[in-house]
Amino acid sequence: MRKILLLAGLLITSLAAQAQSYNYYFGNIHAHTGYSDGNKDSATSLMSTPLQDFNYAKQSNHIDFYGISEHNHLQAGLKSPGDYHQGILDADVVNVDGQFVAMYGMEWGVISNGGHVIIYGIDSLIGWDTSDYDIFNAEYDYTSLWKKVNARPGAFAYLAHPQTTDYDSIFLKPLSTEADSAIVGMCARSGPAFSTVDTYTDASTGNYIPRYKQALQLGYHVGIGLDHDTHYSVFGRQTAGRLVVLASSLTRLNVLDAIRSMRMYSSDDWNTKVDFNIGSQPMGSIITQAYSPVISVNVNDPDGEATSSIKVYGGIPGSGVAPTLITSNVNSNTLTYTATIANNSTYYYYLQITQADTDVIWTSPIWYTRNDALANGISTFKTENIFNLYPNPSNGFVNIVLQEVTPSGFEIEVTNELGQLVYTESTSNMLSTTLDLHDKKGFYIVKVKSAAGISTKKIMIE
Q1: What is the predicted pLDDT for the residue at 378?
Q2: Phi/psi at 318 (5° precision)
Q3: How many CB atoms are closer than 10 A to CB 177?
Q4: What pLDDT score does 379 carry?
Q5: 357 and 426 share a domain?
Q6: Angle between helices 50-57 and 81-94 in degrees, nearest 10
Q7: How many distinct structural domains can be found in the chain?
């Protein structure tokens, strides 16, 4: 549910408003250096540090951004929090907004009876080994991990090579709102992790789409990406596969925002651009509009590769029913389709695109709610840009700072996870207010309504 509530980068807008323009950036967020169990060929490559590896990656073809996610624990080679902190500094040295984005994070967890989680946006090492962490989190305690991610504004979790029983069997249990709040995506493919090829020809054969489908049918709001999981000194060069993000410009802030907002897709091809929109809103969006959704797709490969097929899958979030193929076409770079759905219903849609050379592209979904009452009014897009809310988590007193004042004022509603109203307040010509929720513990949804639209966020009261 996190993405219903945050989704930075979307706008509250009228049906006639223009959609925000995004650029396409290609890269990877899953790699390791000599600080953990990467650079396994350091004796011959003479590379072992994040600084050296970032500098190598930025010279690779079709790499606009690169993320190193160091293993977080002693068994995988990370000897101290100091190494993690140095990795963050190394990324800052190499990062040049507008030219090359360098990011440093962690891959938390173990594979056996656990599951690896890639985390960005936290400058402190989360771990369990004695004297090898800044923030303690028990080795298999994923519930606490999600809470720690949620407590850091801008932080997010992304599931690496997910297996059915990973993350405390998250795919076999009912939706966890804490996990949904923290997790923004997972990979469609991963690796080849131990490739030593530097000619972009060692394609990944991994397939984690079954986990993607499981997450969506459970009600999770997750996007899809592609990971290299690099362990040798071939950063960006073992495969032509790329994680692709839609961002307004090539800056670290905007690349991370795109991933948090699920404006991303998995591509076996290193430069194919995919436009996938409903109502002028891109993949990753969670929107409410009047009438049935009109799906629009355009595929552009700068190298001239043809598109063999475009398949559109759809499903009902939280239904427990797997998504199904709803329409497709062949030998065309474009597709337009109106999906007929009932008023007040919610669906999600995503694409599988296959190119003539068999490269496959999977997109993040668009979640669409039909509300015909909006036919003569405003479409609503969930966003975290109309207002700021802090602290989160809170001990009960919640500060709300509005971005602007409208003549008609604002209405604030707080509901619990069952949709029951627990607090309401109206404001006029005010930019801030404080809510008193000290007697209510748990997760709540804060909704701010105005003539301009609706903005929604989630908060935890401790």
Answers
A1: 46
A2: 80, 5
A3: 19
A4: 44
A5: no
A6: 30
A7: 2
pLDDT of amino acid 372: 87
Domain boundary among 370, 401, 425: 370
State whether 223 and 90 are in the same domain: yes
The beta-strand segments (E) located in 356-409 are 360-363, 366-370, 380-381, 387-390, 397-402
Return the pLDDT at 452. Answer: 62
Question: Would you call 237 helix, strand, or coil by DSSP?
Answer: coil
Quick one: pLDDT band at residue 10, thresholds 50, 70, 90? very low
Q: pTM for the complete prediction? A: 0.82
Task: Answer yes or no: do 34 and 146 share one domain.
Answer: yes
Q: What band does 374 get if pLDDT is binned at 50, 70 and 90?
A: confident
* Same domain membership, residue 416 and residue 353: no
List the beta bridge partners of residue 461.
Answer: 394, 442
Per the structure, the complete domain to which residue 434 belongs is given by: 386-461
Q: For residue 310, which of 357, 356, 353, 364 has the smallest C-alpha distance?
A: 353
DSSP secondary structure, 295-315, as one string? EEEEEE-TT-PPEEEEEEEEE
Query: Burial, 275: exposed, middle or buried (Cβ in 10 Å; 0-12, 13-18, 19+)?
Result: middle
pLDDT tens digits, one per residue of 99-156: 999 999 999 999 999 999 999 999 999 999 998 999 999 999 999 999 999 888 889 9
Q: Over the chain, what is the mean pLDDT?
A: 89
pLDDT more than 70, % of the chain: 90
Do 365 and 414 fall into the same domain? no
| 258 falls within a domain | yes
Residue 117's nearest CA partner among 153, 145, 137, 138 is 145
Q: What is the CATH number of the domain that holds 93?
A: 3.20.20.140
Are residue 360 and residue 452 in the same domain, yes or no?
A: no
Assess whether 325 and 456 both reside in one domain. Answer: no
